[in-house]
């Protein structure tokens, strides 16, 4: 999955970019923080794991 597509999904579900780290970008939804690797391609398994562990807010 393209990093850009994952970022769009996170924004759609209310996540915000908190800060840039050395190798990761740190996203938050106010309660949960998640480190997303800074690569053009993110492995599909990792993208699914992030989506599964962090369902959209209702």
Q: What's the CATH architecture name?
A: 2-Layer Sandwich
Q: Assembly type of the shown chains?
A: single chain
Can you give the mean pLDDT?
A: 88
Strand order of the largest sheet: 1-2-3
Secondary structure elements and their pairing?
Blueprint: H1 3-12, E1 16-20, E2 24-28, E3 33-37, H2 44-53
Antiparallel strand pairs: 1-2, 2-3
Quickly describe the structure:
This protein has helices at 3-12, 44-53; strands at 16-20, 24-28, 33-37. It has 58 residues and is α+β, with helices and mostly antiparallel strands.
Describe it.
34% of the residues lie in helices and 26% in strands. With 58 residues, it is of the alpha+beta class. The protein has a 3-stranded antiparallel beta sheet with strand order 1-2-3, with no helix packed on it. A hairpin with a 3-residue loop joins strand 1 and strand 2 (24-28). The longest helix is centred in the first third of the chain and has 10 residues, at 3-12. It starts with a helix and ends in a 5-residue tail after the last helix. The mean pLDDT is 88.
């Amino acid at each position: 999955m393209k990093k850009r597509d994952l970022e769009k999904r996170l924004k759609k579900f209310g996540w915000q970019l908190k800060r840039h780290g050395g190798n990761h970008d740190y996203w938050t939804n106010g309660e949960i923080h998640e480190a997303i690797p800074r690569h053009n391609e993110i492995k599909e398994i990792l993208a699914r794991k992030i989506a599964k562990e962090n369902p959209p807010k209702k």
